[in-house]
Design a protein that fits this description.
It is a single chain. Helix content is 41%, strand content 13%. Helix 2 crosses helix 23. The protein has 771 residues and is of the alpha/beta class. The protein contains 30 helices and 20 strands. The chain has 3 domains: 61 residues, no CATH class; 422 residues, CofD-like domains (Rossmann fold); 239 residues. The strands form 5 sheets. Strands 5-2-1-9-10-11-12 form a 7-stranded parallel beta sheet, with helices on both faces.
Length: 771
């Protein structure tokens, strides 16, 4: 057979020729699949010991892939936070980023757009959403700075490469500056940040001074600045506030409407153009505020991204749902960018708090599926995310695999994973020193393992390669995606799209059919915070036998507000039966502590929460005491009488009967209906003797938790299991497989499952009426 000249071969013919000998030349590249071999070829040297012709073919193939023109290729990347920003242009929060801030996807694919998650509620973002009715801006700020392109800065401002680097350094100083002490002026703020605004192009410098000075004019922004802040978030938020305030008072926004969509998107797009990231470089997935709701496999359901990221539930996440503050509003530009994309990428990051929330926004997942011509790629996480992916649904005792990530997508996305991606890019750890992996293990982090066979059986093509940052490993002993290597890898996969036949897809997984939870409508966070603040400000705080300064009392109010705010599942209606909070000294504390360590209670006679004064010395102890008493307040004055009656037989007292008489409904002030109250009392092991009488047999000196105390402690445990170790111990039976339980243990397990369901549905499942 006559081999055509090298210059006359197309890429397909080149690969066929290299694969055709009895011992394929590709066999000299260690990777298993042809895509992995192409990536290895581009990232590394030509394999040694080749014959002259094969070596020439390899060099030609590598050159063609590297010279693939990607200037006009439209790329859309979905995600949030560090993972998204890192592959687009590097982690701009690190000092090392400034050594090479212009690499990554944005360099190889200049038309890269990011569609960003907006559900973060921690840190600086959490402080901003207390005051302003907008989406979370932390991830947007992070990605916006990472997306700045050298070419765009040079073209827009007619500056040199060196000047472009200086611009990025100044922006980095400004955007990443955090302050805890409120600054007294814009000039002080800039001075403290270390940013050299005078070296910026005049248009950029002038706009930044305008925004910064506006922060000291707007009263609401000034109030926000009294709390710790990240300046980059503040800059974006201030520009949004300024633009919207021109037509509509911010304080009047209690519901989101269509007229807010374009001003928010346009403001972020304009800032992107100003800073050299480009038009629509960063697009929020929606402008409607939203929060995440996590359902764990033990039945507990709690809200809040930050809370989930710090949780230690000890159970896998089964479902995550985005609850929106109204109809999810999306700019037509977002859908248009997805529709015209040549390459769609799911970025690495927190599984349940980045990709899934973005694709739960109505309309986005359909837009991805409808684009049938784009190359669709998932870049897998490197490490297990504590509190999210550290447990596997199918086998909680083993660690997390990439197939577990795929099942999570399948369960939590409308219509499952069909049409979202067919290639999975994952990191090879073969060259990572064992000592580094051990260091991560000490921190509770382990790699997410590739189970190639499982994924290939599901119809996915996996590409495993070493795309971690060698410099980060050398300098800081950490493993991160290297933005330059990731970009080269993605370019190789894109260049090979017409060369390699796509795998056959069979995406039906009977173990995990698509079943996303139904979204709820929730309050705008700033509206919720305003309600909580108003309620707590009305409640008197009293100190029995002592006087305290107004400043000290207001400080306590702030603590109470922050505690309730940190638990987004507490409806404001849970506070309605509290008329005062009283602090009692240890010398006056008379509550019976024989069976528990609870140092607070709710007094239904005067509707006071009573807390022992030593609880105020420690924030965590105060949180436990407050939550227990709030929980008890929901029962109100349900008990007309409580009596412990001794059982006596001759000279023996084998036990007692705890008798509870429930108050008539007409006289009862209680959060629950008759049916709900009766249900709870029976779950608390009270036996109903008549419509209003319940009893419980207590053997000998057996410990006994009355239903009121149990309710309060369960309330605190449900919100955060670390707050009630006694209940956490009792709930450990839920982790035991049913086959390993004796009949009585099985009954206990089922009763505790029903108790959790009661708290999920009847206690925390009643959504407050929205303003």
């Amino acid at each position: 057979m006559i081999t055509p000249p090298l210059e006359n071969m197309d890429n397909r013919e080149l690969i066929d020729h290299l694969s055709s000998p009895r011992l394929s030349s590709f066999d000299l590249i260690a990777q298993a699949g042809i895509l992995e071999q192409l990536v290895e070829l581009v990232l590394n040297e030509i394999p040694p010991h080749l014959d002259q012709k094969s070596s020439a073919y390899f060099r030609e193939l590598k050159k063609r892939i590297e010279k693939t023109d990607t200037e006009e290729i439209n790329v859309v990347v979905f995600g949030g936070g560090t993972g998204l920003s890192n592959i687009i242009g590097g982690d701009c929060r690190l000092d090392s980023w400034l050594k090479n801030p212009f690499n990554g996807l944005k360099h190889v694919f200049p038309r890269t757009k990011a569609i960003v998650c907006i559900t973060d509620d921690g840190g600086s973002t959490g402080e901003i959403i207390k005051d302003f009715p907008f989406i979370a801006l932390g991830d947007i700020r992070h990605v916006l700075l990472s997306a700045v392109q050298e070419r765009l800065l040079i073209e827009k401002y007619n500056i040199s490469n060196f000047q472009a680097l200086e611009v990025v350094k100044s922006l980095s100083d400004l955007f990443n500056h955090r302050f805890a002490t409120p600054p007294d002026s814009a000039e002080t703020l800039v001075l403290q940040s270390g940013a050299q605004l005078q070296i910026l192009p005049h248009e950029m410098e002038g706009k930044l001074w305008e925004i910064l000075r506006y922060c000291f004019v707007d009263k609401k922004i000034l109030r926000t600045m009294q709390r710790p802040q990240c300046l980059g978030n503040l800059i974006i938020m201030a520009e949004i506030v300024k633009n919207i305030s021109a037509t509509r008072p911010i304080q009047e926004i209690v519901h989101f409407s269509d007229d807010l969509v374009e001003p928010i998107y346009q403001t972020i797009s304009d800032l992107g153009k100003l800073f050299g990231a480009g038009e629509n470089a960063v697009l929020p997935c929606t402008v409607t505020p939203a929060q995440l709701r996590f359902l764990y496999t033990n039945g507990v359901e709690v809200s809040g991204e930050h809370k989930s990221s710090t949780a230690e539930r000890g159970y896998p996440v089964e479902r995550v749902t985005v609850d929106f503050s109204g109809s999810p509003l999306v700019s037509k530009e977002v859908v248009n960018e997805i529709a015209k994309a040549d390459l769609l990428i799911m970025a690495p990051g927190s599984l349940y708090s980045s990709i899934i929330p973005v694709l739960q926004v109505p309309g986005l997942i359909d837009a991805v599926r409808n684009n049938t011509r784009a190359v669709k790629l998932l870049i897998a996480n490197l490490w297990v995310q504590a509190g999210e992916t550290d447990k596997s649904i199918s086998d909680p005792e083993r660690k997390f695999h990439i197939s577990d990530m795929i099942r999570a997508y399948q369960r939590n996305l409308p219509g499952g994973i069909d049409g979202l991606f067919d290639k999975i890019l994952c990191m090879s750890l073969k060259d990572v020193p064992a000592s580094v992996i051990q260091n991560y293990a000490i921190e509770g982090k382990i790699p997410i393992y590739l189970d190639k066979d499982n994924l290939e059986q599901q119809g996915f093509e996996t590409i495993e390669c070493s795309f971690y940052s060698k410099s980060a490993l050398l300098e800081r002993q950490v493993i991160h995606h290297d933005p330059e290597i990731v970009a080269k890898t993605v370019k190789t996969l894109f260049a090979a799209r017409d060369i390699i036949s796509p795998p056959l897809h069979n995406r039906t997984d009977s173990e995990s059919q698509s079943d996303p939870s139904e979204s709820r409508i929730v309050s705008i966070p700033s509206v919720l915070h305003r309600k909580i603040t108003k309620m707590i400000r009305k409640i008197p705080i009293e100190f029995a036998g002592k006087t305290h300064s107004l400043k000290a009392i207001e400080g306590l109010r702030d603590d109470f507000i922050d505690i309730i705010w940190s638990h987004k599942d507490i409806p404001v209606s849970h506070l309605q039966s509290i008329s005062a909070i009283t602090c009692v000294g240890t010398e006056r504390w008379s509550r019976d502590q024989r069976y528990d360590n609870v140092f607070s209670f709710y007094d239904p006679e005067n509707q006071h929460i009573v807390i022992r004064n030593d609880r105020f010395e420690n924030r965590k102890k105060l949180e436990v005491a407050l939550l227990i008493a709030i929980g008890q307040s929901l029962l109100g004055n349900y008990a007309a009488d409580k009596t412990m009656i001794k059982i006596q037989h001759e000279d023996l007292v084998p036990g007692s009967v705890y008798k509870l008489v429930v108050r008539d409904q007409a006289e009862r002030h209680c959060y629950f209906t008759d049916e709900e109250l009766s249900n709870y009392l029976q779950l608390a092991r009270m036996k109903q003797q008549s419509p209003t009488v319940y009893t419980r047999l207590v053997n000998g000196n057996e410990g006994f938790t009355p239903p009121g105390v149990l309710f309060g402690v369960m309330y605190a445990w449900y919100l955060d299991n670390r707050l009630a170790s006694h209940i956490e111990y009792k709930m450990s039976v839920l982790k035991v497989q049913e086959s390993g339980l004796i009949p009585e243990q099985s009954r206990v397990k089922k009763r505790r499952e029903r108790l959790i369901a009661f708290f999920r549905n009847s206690v925390f499942g009643k959504v407050d009426k929205l303003v």
